[in-house]
Design brief:
The chain is an all-alpha fold. 68% of the residues lie in helices and 0% in strands. Helix 4 runs antiparallel to helix 5 and helix 4 crosses helix 6. The mean pLDDT is 83.
Length: 187
């Protein structure tokens, strides 16, 4: 049955497809427009009604956590590699994710405020802690560098991303910021 908006009511059998369409649209729109993109824009882009969106994801934070769970899955896979270069690859991917989607960091900040049990920050800390010592032992990272230094550098990169006036300037600004850390093993 076609609704007045042109969407087809696919019914309960399409729940998994609807959920995936919402996640795909949310990832794209969070990346393009930021974490606070209107949820009705996400529903429209996904081709579902707002009721369907809220049935799957009652809050913005629920939606963002589902979207960005994949980011942590990627970071987990990198940190699970026992090789000494895992830290460098982890850092590079963290920076890429921050550039690709500052909404990832916005979501984490929002989660810390809204969900007392949210452990995303701790999770990121643990991923860095798992990889940094191996890189240091192999001479790939300065032994004076610690996890808090890395997380501070990440917050700095986020600041560069969110305060850049021209999107085209982001990459060069990040390159300048990461040069500050090269003597300490971040690149």
């Amino acid at each position: 049955m076609t609704t007045t908006s042109g969407r087809v009511n696919r019914g309960p059998a399409a729940a998994a497809q609807n959920r995936q369409a919402i996640l795909d649209s949310a990832r794209r729109l969070f990346t393009d427009r930021g974490y606070h993109v209107p949820l009705n824009a996400i529903a429209k882009d996904a081709g579902v009604g707002q009721g369907v969106l809220y049935r799957h994801f009652p809050t913005r934070l629920d939606l963002a956590l589902a979207v960005f769970e994949e980011n942590f899955t990627q970071l987990e896979a990198i940190s699970a590699d026992p090789g000494p270069d895992a830290f460098g690859r982890l850092w590079k991917r963290i920076v890429e994710l921050t550039v690709e989607s500052a909404a990832f960091v916005e979501m984490a900040v929002d989660a810390r405020r809204g969900l007392p049990d949210y452990a995303g920050g701790e999770h990121l800390h643990n991923l860095v802690q798992r990889t940094l010592p191996r890189a240091q032992a192999a001479g790939l990272a300065d032994t004076g560098l610690d996890v808090e230094d890395v997380l501070t550098a990440h917050r700095m990169i986020y600041g560069v991303v969110t305060t850049s006036i021209q999107p085209a300037d982001i990459r060069s600004s990040i390159e300048r910021a990461t040069r500050l850390f090269r003597p300490h093993g971040l690149s």
